[in-house]
Amino acid sequence: MEQATTQQAYSLFHQGTLALADVEANGMRVDVDRLDRTANKVTARITKLEGKLKNDEVYQTWRKRFGGKTQLGSRQQLGQVLYGEMGFKSDNKTKTGRVQVNESALEKVDHPFVKRYLEVEKLKKLKGTYLNGVKREVVDGLLHPSFNLHLVKTHRSSSDSPNFQNIPIRDKLIGKLIRSCFVAREGHQLVEVDYSALEFKIAACWWKDDAMVAYASDPTLDIHRDMAAECYCLPVDEVPKDVRFFAKNQFVFPELYGSYYVTCARNLWSVIESGGLKTKEGTPLDEHLLEQGIEQKDFEEHIEGVEEAFNDRFPTWSDRKEKWWNRYQRKGSFPLMTGFIISGVYSRNNLMNYPIQGPAFHCLLWSLIQMNRWLKQKRMRTKIVGQIHDSIVADVHEDELDDYLLLAKQVMTESIRKAWDWIITPLAIEAEVSPPGGTWFDKREVLL
DNA sequence: CACTGGAGCCAC
DNA sequence: AAACGTGGCTCCAGTG
To answer: Is the domain defined by A34-137 classed in CATH 1.10.760.10?
Structure first.
């Protein structure tokens, strides 16, 4: 990272490196016996399911086609069997023109072999990447992942050996199998504190759009909920949680970072089925849209209208993003709010994303530095053991839980705003705590 | 045998 | 004019 920078940016990463070195040294406790038992169970399940796959007639076709080169893990081979030999239709191609044989493509193939294949692949990912990855790196019951500040173009962090920042959570079963192997130290509890809607708030700080700032400042307003309502023609107070989640990830963030209605419409439509999206009354969303007079063929035009309304809702953003892109094209470099100066060749979408992604993480890093410093100065038994972009994971002594939660709230929502006056929206946090003797999977939200 | 790029999947 | 961003890890397939 040989970029020009300011003293404050240098200092943030200097202090940040020292703090993250403490975090690495602290390490997260692992229940190695449970990890081993889980790995054995998952291996047995994989073996059993693979045995069934090998007895399927599809596998005979596969053997006939590839002989001794047959490999169950080869998606390319599976694609040839399904789309070449068995006559299933493939629609999507990869970047380089090969047939896509990913989960969403395979979900469209109605065959028990394929269904089972997907289940096995999920378990192999769990075993190969996560269970084995943790086992490989754990030392005396402690895991010490690396946290890097020198690798990411946006000046975010990354993590490796193992990557602590992509442990499964969305698939509840897979998440449970791996996360319940992470435990607190004796007499401690795991506590995860994360910033609420941090990237959207930082976007508001960056673009200084009044409506965006208002949305990011008023806890009763919720842009993801409201855009979900518009995209799927629902009343704002009848947006299910999963529908909000998809609107956030298939509309709001893509639009902020340079996508447009055609792509958004395609993705918003495809998650209706794959996500099993329904209204609160249980009507599938495609049926609900039909009742509102929107067929699949009308959906793109509908989202085009939602996009226009989104642009009108945040007029300063709409205006400033073009000027921002033009400014970069003249100068060839640009500053982040945290003092980093980025120069080099970047796309339009990079210019939309980098000023948000980096500084959002810097809020987390600044807070982690202060909290780590305080814990050490006060000789607390609580230790910070990890960091996931907008969240901090700590191994908290039971007697120090209240102090720690108070510290987090003070530093993450108040002190930081005194240090950085460019933060013009309130910041908020949420905390999840594992019960004494519980695991990372057992964390439950607590009121602050 | 070492290495590389693509594809896929996990997270935010 | 073009079309969301950032990572790490694993397996396969191909190269030398």
So the answer is: no
